[in-house]
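[Automated response] Your request has been received and processed.

Submitted sequence:
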Amino acid sequence: MSGFPWGAFAQNLALAAGAALAVMLATFAVAVRKGVHRIVDIAWGLGFTAVALVTFVASDGTGDDGRRILVTALTSVWGLRLAAHIARRGRGHGEDPRYEAMLAKAPGNRDLYALHKVYLLQGALVWLVSLPVQAAQYVPGPLTAFAWAGTALWTLGLFFEAVGDAQLARFKADPANRGRIMDQGLWSWTRHPNYFGDFCVWWGLYLLACDSGAAAAVAAVSPLVMSGLLIKGSGKPMLERHMAERPGFAEYVARTSGFFPLPPKRRGPAPTPPSST
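Generated structure:
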């Protein structure tokens, strides 16, 4: 693990924490003014972008320039696209039902409760999950096959996220689909193309740190935490509990992969109508 600039990286951990906290506190101030805390979801992508940019500046003269530019660009494209998508999706809507239910249980001031339970927690997660973004920019060596494999995996992930989100938005915009389960396009291969895409993005960014054993070791927790959240935590399970009572959802589950894309199973034959004789 020699050659990795531990001292500079340790200083960057503090700078990244400050960047994530600043984004969350600024978002909290806007949310209190508007009276809607759902905008914290926009800050998720912005927080990672801020960490990438702060790390890019701080790592100047330490890490490989090509890797620094690549990691910052990939993280910023992902974060800004996600923030813009969530902002468009939430425009004109009131409070998110998840936050409304949580805030209804607040023992005191709702805004301070949200600050503690949502904003500061998300800021801490941004800092933790962004470890590959930080560590990779301090790797001194040139890009290798690990980095290009990571870029390819990131590209696959962004494709699933962006295309899946666009397909779902078009489906919901058609009044004829009201009350129906989206089971077309990428959504016929996996019930969660956007979560699978997120999974690929963060494992891809992790591979960009794997040209250094030290960076790989310190950053490994990030894709593991993100994978746990997406597959077992606040991602797939929470959404599917919300969807469980929707008409047709059980049939959709039976024929469609739960996370990793697989060819959809054939629909069963239509039931035979009872004989009139």
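Summary generated for your ticket: DSSP finds twelve helices and no strands in the chain. The first helix runs from residue 6 to 34.
If you did not submit this request, please reply to this message.
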